[in-house]
Amino acid sequence: MEVDDGDADDDWDPQVAPGVVLRPHIIRWTPDAGEGPGDGKADNLDADPLHDPDADDQDEKWVADQLLQPDTSNVKTTDAVLNCPGCFTPVCYQCQRHEQFTRQWRASEVRNCIVDKSAALSMAKDDPAKYFAVRCETCNADVGLQDMDGIYHLFHVLESLA
Q1: Are the beta carbons of 159 and 82 closer than 8 angstroms?
Q2: What tens digit of pLDDT does each residue of 32-76 get?
Q3: What does the DSSP 8-state code read for residue 107?
Q4: Structural domain boundaries in the chain
Q5: Closest alpha carbon to 140 in 162, 120, 112, 119
Q6: Which one of 16, 128, 135, 162 is separated from 4 by 20 to 30 angstroms, measured CA to CA?
Q7: Which fold has domain 69-160?
Q8: 139 with 131: CB under 8 angstroms?
């Protein structure tokens, strides 16, 4: 019995004849005559009716007011904004980077997450500390653990700059 390796009908021959040189096709773009700063076409690019130049500042202020909690000295800071690796949904807006483990974060509050308290997890067989799985509410991906004190330890997340 002969085994078909799938290449029997393959007619592709990657050998190039001597003297053939493959060069990329580069086309240089130049504006048409009559287009320029004084004809009004370039000026229309700045007049986007849907663009709000103050939107970024307003969004930043809203996040600071609504999503960040002040610390003991009434300062609202975060080391990163954390997102689910499965669907990029934001799961934490205010967190603290772990001192020893560079890819681990600690938070007192998460968003768009479900804590599975049906099964307690432990780090060692005789360890009295119990942890609960924290999953993304959108795609059900595991993103971290919650300890018995209610602190979230997030380590399977994507970090974005705050």
Answers
A1: yes
A2: 766 555 555 555 556 677 778 788 788 878 777 776 666 666 556
A3: E
A4: 69-160
A5: 112
A6: 16
A7: 2.170.150
A8: no
